Amino acid sequence: MRVFIELAYDGTNYHGWQRQPVSNTVQQVIEDALERLCGCKTTIIGCGRTDAEVHASYYVAHCDIPSLPSQRFDSLSQLAFKLNGMLNSDVAILSITEVSPKAHARFDAIDRSYTYHLHTEKDPFLSGRSARIFGSLDISAMRLAASHLIFKGDFAAFCKTGSDVKTTICDVRQLEIITFDSYRVRIEISADRYLRNMVRAIVGTLLDVGKIKMTEEEFIDVIASCDRSNAGKSAPGCGLYLSRVMYPPDVFISKILS
């Protein structure tokens, strides 16, 4: 039986999503828990990779599990409950849903959204969950620059150097910069796909605009250059959250087993 696992995690204590030989990752801890529950090695495939310290307020992975009822759980809601009991408090299983046998958490996704949180004043309650930015920011200038990112085209200027990708073409559909008190800012971006380190590179370059280190015209030139060395430094990972993943309706089986 193929299922989608919807989850959320605080990435502070993990070296990203994807399993690695020596570092602790989110994929690893979930796979280890599933193996104990299912009685066999269970590989999960995520909707995308997140870097070290990056969070997900909403994430989707798929895997194949024994048909119900199994010896260790008789429903998907019970499987979710038991997984939550085995995982640390920084990883939460939101739901487990049966999907079509060929459904793929990564390749079937049609839209993904990231949210970047930053703050310009010291706040102990935001440590590790929002990026501390020193100095004031010209939010109006950042919004003007951000408007030039909403297009379908080449985003190579914001792709980590040396990334092995077939294309650097992305369709960025939305990018908003929202202030919600005197010192906190939220940047929301939606696109069909992302290049490695793309969101953090975009945010870092927008911060250069906000700090009056780069003009709107220079920002446009960065995009056109398709050269990562012209863009700003990547923003810290702790402010980044994968926040939404969308799929076609026919991926899901209409009857949710519970």
How would you sum up this structure, described in words?
By secondary structure, the protein is of the alpha+beta class. The protein has two domains: 2-107, Pseudouridine synthase I, catalytic domain, N-terminal subdomain (Alpha-Beta Plaits, 2-Layer Sandwich), CATH 3.30.70; 111-243, Alpha-Beta Plaits, CATH 3.30.70.660. The protein is 21% helix and 26% strand. It contains five helices and ten strands, in the order βαββαβββαβββααβ. The protein has helices at residues 26-38, 76-86, 139-146, 198-210, 216-225; strands at residues 2-9, 45-46, 55-64, 91-98, 111-119, 131-132, 152-154, 169-179, 184-191, 240-246. Strands 1, 2, 3, 4, 5, 6, 7, 8, 9 and 10 form a ten-stranded mixed β-sheet that branches. Helix 1 (26-38) crosses helix 2 (76-86), helix 3 packs across helix 4 and helix 3 packs parallel to helix 5. The longest helix has 13 residues, at 26-38. It is globular, with a radius of gyration of 20 Å.
Record field, number of beta strands: 10
CATH architecture of the largest domain: 2-Layer Sandwich
Briefly note the CATH topology name of the largest domain: Alpha-Beta Plaits
The CATH homologous superfamily of the largest domain is named: Pseudouridine synthase I, catalytic domain, C-terminal subdomain
End-to-end Cα distance, whole Å, is 14 Å
Sheet with most strands? 10 strands, mixed
Uncertain ranges: 254-258
SSE series: EHEEHEEEHEEEHHE
Rg, rounded, reads: 20 Å
User: Approximately how much helix is present in the residues?
Assistant: 10-25%
Overall mean pLDDT score?
93
